[in-house]
Design goal:
It contains three helices and eleven strands, in the order βαβββββαβββββα. By secondary structure, the protein is an alpha/beta fold. α2 runs antiparallel to α3.
Length: 205
Amino acid sequence: MNIEVKNSIKAIDYNKSMEILEKRVFDVYQESKKELLWILEHNSVYTAGTSSNVNDLLDKKINVIKTNRGGKHTYHGPGQKIVYFVLNLNKRKKDIRELVFNVEKCIIDVLKEYEINSFRDKKNIGIWVGDKNNSKKIAAIGIRVKKWIAYHGFSLNINNDLSKYNSINPCGIKDKGVTSLENINLKNFNNINQIITKKFLNIFL
């Protein structure tokens, strides 16, 4: 497999990034471009996935962009790494459950590099840290598959403003919190893009 890796320094507008992703999905399906791993940050934005519920929108005044990824409401903003990918499952295993498992493994492997233990939750997709009785979400996952091209990806909270989550029930979850690397006292995460890239390619190349 041959995966193009892109790192965007400046924040990317959410709608613009969706246009780019959708175009790459078409190109990958046509086999005119490589698969993609794209690491970026967004300006502050709330999005609602295909299974979102309006009752999870606690502040009705905020602007929410509806998107075609799986999942519910979430927040993206500065200090949060967005990891988008476009993977051709026609040339891989056509197994969405395994794909999600491998994306979760990628995030867990990234956090291990910082000596942070994290885990899956069978009931709530995403990656969690802390005690299982008092766990907090540190990474959210939202994926769409079109003609067996898998895209969108995951977000990892680095040092973003966690108060932004107060306006929603993140991913529809009311009884668990959200955290970040900074919030669990990790000071140095300057090489996070390189680590994400390495762990992703270890699994998907």
